[in-house]
Design goal:
It is globular and about 65 Å long. A hairpin with a 5-residue loop joins strand 5 and strand 6. By secondary structure, the chain is an alpha/beta fold. It contains 13 helices and ten strands.
């Protein structure tokens, strides 16, 4: 091992070797690899490709906007509805398309997301305990694994920023209480929604309706409520979506401000994640340990992955075999 982590070769350290070098890793950035460890079904290419319920007019909207991101299309439709109402015009056609796209998104998520009963409680508790050991947690996953893991440990020592009226986010009321680990969902999540008013809220489990049951449904009579999901597209498009939402922009800003040694688990920090790399590079002296999945990869592939990450991140880097980390418990 060299001073800034591994040399550019096909080797990978074990996690315990990394912690032997330094034991102050206290922040986590989680990617889809975490969820795939729990359930391989999360390896699907895109929600858009799974959305068989999209009608031809719906698909035309995606094509016209040059995106496969549902949040972008639903956001544009919500704006069109408000504009029509302000001008005294009929918002009906826009509302019909909104409901159609939202229904297709709901069916796609229901089709690809694992049921809570199919996930080991021990696995969720193990993930939750790892989260509790951190000072900051950031997740790019929009599925419910991280949220379920928080629930599995009773949210003890963990918090989000949705403690205002009706589980809403208020940028003026988001200071983290002492001795709590904040968990930020950088790309939104299935339990987060944007109301027609623009306010971001968190869904909570109800007696007869799970979070998956509630997904894609009107909330409190608000037909324009939409899931907060930044699921696909280029880094630029993702950043535009993030900057258009108070909660997401706050979460990304916190990633940039966090100067603690960071473990990146389950993300290869690809070009679609350049906005995350840019945020990390705001603190170039902060060490970053990046997990790489060894299984099914040649030494050449590992060498290329390390070189790509090193070219993007301006930080002391460490690379380790993802299967040796406690978060690999689902594998």
């Amino acid at each position: 091992m060299v001073a800034d982590g591994h040399p550019i070769d096909g080797s990978l350290a074990r996690w315990e070797e990394v912690t032997a070098e330094r034991d102050d890793w206290s922040a986590l950035l989680l990617g889809n690899g975490l969820s795939r460890n729990v359930w391989e079904g999360f390896g699907y290419p895109s929600l858009f490709d799974k959305a068989g319920a999209l009608t031809t007019p719906d698909r035309n909207l995606f094509e016209e906007l040059g995106t496969k991101n549902f949040e972008r299309v639903l956001g544009e439709l919500a704006s069109a509805i408000r504009m029509a109402e302000a001008l005294g015009e009929d918002p009906g056609p826009y509302l019909d398309r909104y409901k159609s796209v939202q229904l297709a998104l709901g069916k796609a998520v229901q089709a690809v997301h694992v049921k809570h009963s199919s996930v080991s409680g021990d696995t969720l508790e193990a993930i939750g305990r790892t989260l509790q050991e951190q000072e900051y947690v950031f997740s790019t996953n929009y599925d419910l694994i991280v949220y379920w893991a928080m629930h599995a440990v009773g949210f003890k020592g963990l918090c989000d920023c949705f403690w205002c009226e009706k589980n809403s986010f208020d940028p003026a009321e988001c200071d983290i209480p002492a001795h709590r680990t904040p968990v930020y969902f950088l790309h939104g999540a299935l339990h987060l929604v944007v109301m027609g008013s623009g306010a971001t809220r968190k869904l909570v489990h109800q007696n007869l309706r799970t979070l998956l049951d509630q997904f894609g449904k009107p909330l409190d009579g608000d037909e324009q409520v939409r899931p907060l999901l930044i699921t696909e597209g280029s880094a630029q498009h993702k950043l535009q979506g993030i900057e258009g939402n108070d909660y997401l922009s706050h979460a990304l800003d916190q990633l940039g401000k966090c100067d603690l040694p960071m473990v990146v688990f389950g993300s290869d920090l690809s070009e679609q994640d350049q906005h995350l790399v840019d945020a990390l590079n705001r603190n170039p002296s902060r060490a970053v340990a990046v997990s790489i999945r060894r299984e099914g990869r040649s030494e050449k592939d590992i060498r290329a992955a390390k070189a790509t990450i090193r070219a993007g991140l301006d930080a002391p880097l460490f690379f380790f075999d993802s299967s040796t980390h406690p978060l690999a418990c689902g594998g």
